[in-house]
Amino acid sequence: MQLSKELQRIGLNANEAKLYLAALELGQTDISRLAKKAGVKRTTAYLIAAALKDRGLLSSFKKGKRPVFYAEDPRILLDQIDERKSIIASFLPQLLSQANLIDKKPVIRFYEGEDGIREIYKDTLRFPGKEILAAYTEDSIHYSGEDYWDNVYTPKRLKLRIPIRNLYPNTASMKKYAEAVRNQAQTTKFIESKIFNSEIEILIYGDRQIAILSFEEEVGLIVESPKIQQGLRALFETIWALAPGPAVR
Fold first, then answer.
1. CA proximity to 78, closest of 134, 143, 17, 10
2. pLDDT tens digit string along 165-174?
3. For the domain 2-71, what is the CATH code?
4. Most exposed residue of 114, 118, 165, 238, measured as fewest CB within 10 angstroms of its CB?
């Protein structure tokens, strides 16, 4: 019974395992004795024997008018495994290249409601030590409330040593906020609000992640794409370089 289970683990079904074991035990034999030993019907035994022959585990020859069956050496199983490994190795690079193509396709995740938006912020903390680039709106600092920022998000971010570079609209409230978060591993530059009047927030983080949030609509997206991130990162760096005045730390 145990041998039958082990044979099933390597791909034989229950009847194939029983018939192969019966053939090993009986040696050269006819289909009737093989069927009886394996505990299967004679008509079924022919079908099973054919399947085992296809697998290279059973052979037959004619003795008079009747076929005689015998099991092949069990060590053929190891030979077959080696052969399969060799075949797989020959086309594995192609499989991996296909996997790489799949991996390069952008992944988009959608979030909704306050809990969903907090899930997006939580996702930015999955990359310890990696800088976050953020283009904020005034809605950003009010949406989740000071308690969330002061007691949840910022302590976790600082513990994970994740710095942020911020682009803020140049308004009184954003300047006040920038002053309030000094010494929290944040560096900020301001852009005139007439120019930087976006109503969405963009976060660039990790190796391939971009988050886009609309607080008024209470929706957000996380896009995972190295190419899209590369483009937005270049745009952020360009704006950062052109932003007037020194950075606030």
1. 10
2. 988 888 887 7
3. 1.10.10.10
4. 238
